[in-house]
Amino acid sequence: MRTIAITGSASGIGLATRNALEAEGARVIGIDLKDSDVKADLSTKAGREGALQDTLASCNGQLDGFVACAGISGIGNPGSLTVAINYFGAVELLEGLQPALAKGTDASAVAISSNSVTTMPNIPDVLIDALLNGDEAAAAEIADKHTGHAYAGSKLALARWVRRSATGENWIQAGITLNAVAPGRTSTPFDDAMMKNEQIRPHLEAYPIPKGRLGQADEIGKFIAYLLGPNARFFCGSLLYIDGGSDALMRADEWPATLRV
Ligand SMILES: NC(=O)c1ccc[n+]([C@@H]2O[C@H](COP(=O)([O-])OP(=O)(O)OC[C@H]3O[C@@H](n4cnc5c(N)ncnc54)[C@H](O)[C@@H]3O)[C@@H](O)[C@H]2O)c1
User: Fold this and answer.
1) Atom of ligand 1 nearest to the CA of 214
2) How far apart are CA 23 and CA 231, in angstroms?
């Protein structure tokens, strides 16, 4: 039986992923603030360390998969909290669980990014650089100055961390595939809460989705389960959009782009 750990397993996309994996017969170790096997607050260093300790104890130091899904939208929260959960809460668990994944069978990891990485304009480089440098105190200070970009910045840095890491010795060279998924607007408590915000709702309503509807948590969860499964062993360092066409609509000619040498 495969054992797979998921952060953010209590709600939305994480819960849908849990359900899809359990339907396939996997054992899931859910990590969340509540309603989970491992209770942890991933916004703090101590919470992340506790999550790692309890997850490693629960899987006896051996995992076949991991999904870093926990996240907040950043609306109404300081930028520092958004990047603490969305970036450091993902990267520190990916790094801390890597040795257990290296002992698993055909192991894989998936980080949940967002299509906001390319559809939200003008994310400041200074924020991305600070996150990728891994200095949480410095990144927190910068994120608080750019609160409106903290969410998209956290998700862009996470996607770039995945692409930088996936091809290296700790991941594909250790037999572990690592990829990122970029959902578009998806119907979950996360989106419901943003729609209740009077200032944000008009922007969300104007946001173009060629498919004409929001994504459903189940269709994202089933895709993540596929990425963790036996038929997805050749994906490595991919950022996979699943967004009803928003990204393609907004920058059709900007990607793919030729390699400049
Ligand atoms: N719903 C969307 O429109 C959408 C779009 C793109 C990306 N995403 C991303 O998908 C992921 C899942 O989002 P969702 O829509 O399922 O949201 P959700 O709010 O339904 O679920 C998020 C889960 O993360 C957990 N979480 C939040 N803060 C935490 C903390 N400090 N420590 C531990 N757990 C914590 C919550 O308790 C919750 O169970 C997020 O990373 C989000 O950024 C969502």
Assistant:
1) 3
2) 17
> In the chain, which residue ranges form alpha helices assigned H by DSSP?
12-23, 45-58, 79-83, 89-102, 116-119, 125-133, 136-145, 147-166, 189-195, 201-206, 217-227, 246-250
Please tell me the distance between residue 103's alpha carbon and the centre of ligand 1 in angstroms.
28
Query: Cβ distance 226 to 26 under 8 Å?
Result: no
Residue 124, preceding peptide bond in cis (omega within 30° of 0): no
Are 184 and 242 a contacting pair, CB within 8 Å?
Answer: yes
What integer is the mean pLDDT of 213-234? 98
CA distance 120 to 25: 38
Judge whether 96 and 129 are in contact, CB under 8 Å.
no
Active site residue 207: no
Rounded to whole angstroms, the Cα distance separating 183 from 176 reads 22
pTM for this one?
0.98
**Residue 232 Cα to ligand 1 middle (Å):** 24
Query: Among 13, 37, 88, 112, which is best to mutate for testing ligand 1, by the most ligand atoms less than 8 A from CB?
Result: 13
In this prediction, residue 13 carries a pLDDT of 98
pLDDT at residue number 224: 98
Q: Coil, helix or strand for 210? A: coil
Mean pLDDT of the chain, nearest integer: 97
Structural domains for the chain: 3-242 (3.40.50.720)
Band (98; pLDDT cuts 50, 70, 90): very high
The one-character DSSP state at 258 is P
Find out whether the beta carbon of 246 lies less than 6 Å from any atom of ligand 1. Answer: no
